[in-house]
Write a structure and sequence with these properties.
The protein is an alpha/beta fold. It has two domains: 19-57 and 112-163 and 257-372, Rossmann fold, CATH 3.40.50.1220; 73-107 and 166-250. The chain is built from 13 helices and nine strands. It has helices spanning 25-39, 77-80, 85-107, 112-122, 137-146, 180-190, 192-204, 232-236, 259-270, 285-296, 310-314, 327-340, 345-353, and strands at 43-47, 128-131, 159-161, 164-171, 177-179, 246-250, 274-278, 301-304, 322-323.
Length: 372
């Protein structure tokens, strides 16, 4: 059996702060502005879990870039898809935990940083975005801004969800896709005791610790009686009630990126003028690969993220391209100055939503966090 480990960063001594990290806030915002101006509207943004922490969704990694909860063992892809009694138990465990963990992710709202990034898209400074996050918050933020425009050429097709989205599920047998809310309702109907627990959590606000993939920790829980349905579309087409293993539309640990997603991410970088990286340690190779590709294409790169990342350890001299700080205040300071001297429907739309980000930090996280 091949052992697949959780992507993390090796423990290394901290690097000295770069000149960009030491810039005062106003100068940091000016540097971002100069960078975006040079991009001529062809800057691509790459984001990670650190962007969503202020929406109440925990990052996987802590301040030193290492896996922040070594006792948590997510289900690997090969475990989830096993056609065996063991595989069925893995699916029971995953879907029972995810049944309780999905609602907080579903209900999460874009925080200020999501809004600021959507503003860069709508203003034409960086229309295209690649995100490692599966929480659907970047599409929500973009929809919020564009809802104030009479028309817009921008859509969620400009956002590539590199690791998928929790908002949908699909069956492995025939790739039938359905909204996660529909499957969530099926799970609730088939598991009334768990539905009661979910309703109690909604009522009291006492929810279990939720991870970025919507999974939760339930020490001592018994999952044997949890019922996981097969694909309802397969059943409706007469392929059998239990046909079609259903999984969320996310890339699990140990699973490879879908070919079309990988190809699209490569193409986005090939047509980009530069890369802006926000809120990620780049611990997963799928994200680090994109930064490496941009570096090999000699694209200008600016990274705004807290804590160490794989890039400054894997790309010589990369540390000089990084601001080790929270991205939100830098983005806001830049947008404040930009909006003063510009006009037009896009500017007015951004002004209307600039303060609508919702901050709801995970209860166990205090103060600034490293990025996931």
């Amino acid at each position: 059996m091949v052992r697949i480990s959780i992507p993390t960063l090796p423990p290394l001594p901290p690097l000295p702060p770069s000149a960009l990290t030491l810039l005062p806030a106003r100068e940091a915002a000016s540097h971002l502005g100069e960078f975006l101006d040079k991009g001529k509207g062809k800057t691509v943004i790459l984001t990670g879990a650190g962007v969503s922490v202020e929406s109440g969704i925990r990052a996987y990694r802590g301040e030193d870039g290492t896996y922040s909860n070594p006792n948590y063992k997510p289900i690997m892809y090969q475990e989830l898809i096993q056609d065996s009694p063991t595989g069925r138990m893995f699916r029971k465990r995953y879907w029972a935990r995810s049944f309780l963990g999905y609602p907080p992710v579903r209900d999460a709202q874009p925080n200020p940083t999501h809004i600021y990034i959507a503003a860069l898209q709508v203003l034409g400074l960086a229309p295209r975005l690649i995100t490692q996050n599966v929480d659907n918050l970047h599409p929500k933020a973009l929809n919020l801004v564009t809802s104030h425009l009479p028309s817009s050429s921008l859509s969620n097709s400009q956002i590539l969800e590199l690791h998928g989205t929790l908002a949908k599920v699909h069956c492995l047998e025939h790739s039938h896709t359905q909204p996660r809310d529909d499957f969530q309702a099926q799970l609730g109907h088939l598991n009334p005791l768990w539905q009661a627990k979910a309703e109690e959590s909604e009522r009291t606000g006492d929810r279990p610790r939720t991870n970025p993939d919507g999974d939760v920790e339930l020490p001592g829980a018994d999952f044997r009686d949890f019922t996981v349905p097969g694909c309802k579309i397969c059943e409706a087409q007469g392929k059998g009630k239990d046909q079609g293993i259903v999984k969320p539309n996310v890339v699990f640990f140990g699973e490879t990126l879908p070919t079309h997603v990988k190809d699209t991410s490569i193409q986005m970088l090939e047509s980009a003028s530069q890369l802006l990286v926000i809120g990620t340690s780049l611990a997963t190779y799928s994200a680090f690969r994109l930064v490496k590709q941009a570096h090999e294409q000699s694209l200008p790169i600016l990274m705004i993220s807290q804590g160490p990342s794989r890039a400054e350890r894997g790309i010589k001299g990369f540390g000089e391209q990084k601001m080790d700080r929270q991205a939100g205040p830098v983005l806001r300071a830049y947008l404040n100055e930009l909006l003063k001297t510009n006009s037009g429907p896009e500017v007015e739309a951004v002004k209307r939503v600039l303060d609508q980000g919702v901050v709801k930090r995970p209860p166990e996280v205090e103060g600034p966090r490293a990025e996931g």
